[in-house]
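Exercise 7.
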Amino acid sequence: MDLTGRLNHILGPLLALLLMVYFGYHIVQGERGLFSWMRLRQKIAESERHLAKIQSEKEELELRVSLMRPDSLDPDMLEQRAQEVLNLVPRGDIVIYDEELKTSPKILQNEESKLEMQK
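Solution. The predicted structure, written as tokens, is:
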């Protein structure tokens, strides 16, 4: 009787302690525990930074596209793009030759310089 009384007296608190340890472990280490929550918060912050970067790139591209539209054509943007595509530079600009590219841009001649060269 004395042994079963002690066992009943110890068994209740021991079971409660084991349950507290079990739930405590899962609160910290479990699938939805604190560590998982911290990893998720870190992933969210990283994704938000990536989203902000992509949105800024998108806005920059939208601005460049809007500058190329016929109704709001920016002459400077058009000239810059034409120079890039055609590999041409205006007379008077400084050109640095790149050995790796093995190309040199052609020089644009406006009408006045063409007339001067013909004389």
